[in-house]
Specification:
By secondary structure, this protein is an alpha/beta fold. Helices cover 29% and strands 22% of the residues. The protein has a six-stranded parallel β-sheet with strand order 1-12-7-4-2-3, with helices on both faces. It starts with a helix and ends with a strand.
């Protein structure tokens, strides 16, 4: 083998480094506070959701929720929408008299030709302004395929933090019943290239929450 001074120099540095004792890391504080405490869940959720570039529309009742759905769909280009086949969403779609093709989750998964998906959520996490969904919303594709993901939720689904959300869905058996669970914090986005924010990098460009007062 030909003499390679550079290689030998690198190996010498590695050998020298291996002889240096590495101090043991200090024990982590399991009780360290990462997020500020949640005192007002609704107010905190709206604040964090805005920071996540999420669109939140409040509704006082079912009729107002339908009107919000109509407004969001009117802002989209023509095309099919995918809707989770759930009674509350059936009622909303019927009341909205949507003039576009509707593909229900009971008919199969969403297609790439769709303009939006409309689903329910399992929880709203106030601490991070996130939505928590499982495969019951229509499968993994329901939250990533279309350029706009519209979710319907009520204020009764607000929880202070992720731990509470996970505990609740576990107690309800949803983690065993579904193939995936996902925490979504705003629209899909990245700033990897020259720190320029690009939305819709790996999923929807828009994440819209229609939040109805539970009364």
């Amino acid at each position: 083998m030909a003499n390679n001074p550079s290689r030998e120099l690198v190996l010498q540095r590695i050998r020298a480094g291996l002889k240096v004792a590495i101090p043991s890391p200090a024990p982590s504080n399991q009780n360290a506070v990462i997020f500020a405490p949640v005192e007002k869940p609704l107010e905190r959720f709206l604040q964090e959701a805005k920071a996540n570039l999420m669109e939140c529309f409040s509704a006082v009742d079912a009729a107002a929720s339908v009107q919000q759905l109509i407004r969001v769909l009117q802002s989209l280009p023509p095309g099919e929408i995918f809707v989770q086949d759930a009674p509350v969403l059936r009622r909303m779609v019927d009341a909205a008299r949507i003039n576009r093709p509707v593909r229900w989750s009971s008919q199969g998964g969403p297609t790439e030709a769709g303009q939006a998906t409309v689903t329910l959520v399992d929880a709203l996490v106030a601490q991070t302004g996130s939505i928590f969904v499982t495969a019951s919303c229509g499968g993994r594709g329901a939250s990533v395929v279309a350029p706009c993901h519209i979710v319907f939720a009520t204020t009764s689904q607000l929880v202070p933090d992720l731990q509470t959300a996970l505990r609740n869905v576990k107690e309800q058996g949803k983690l065993n019943q579904n193939s995936f669970a996902c925490l979504i914090s705003g629209s899909s986005r990245t700033a990897d290239i020259e720190k320029i924010l690009v939305q819709g990098a790996h999923g929807p460009t828009r994440l819209v929450v229609i939040l109805q007062n539970a009364g």
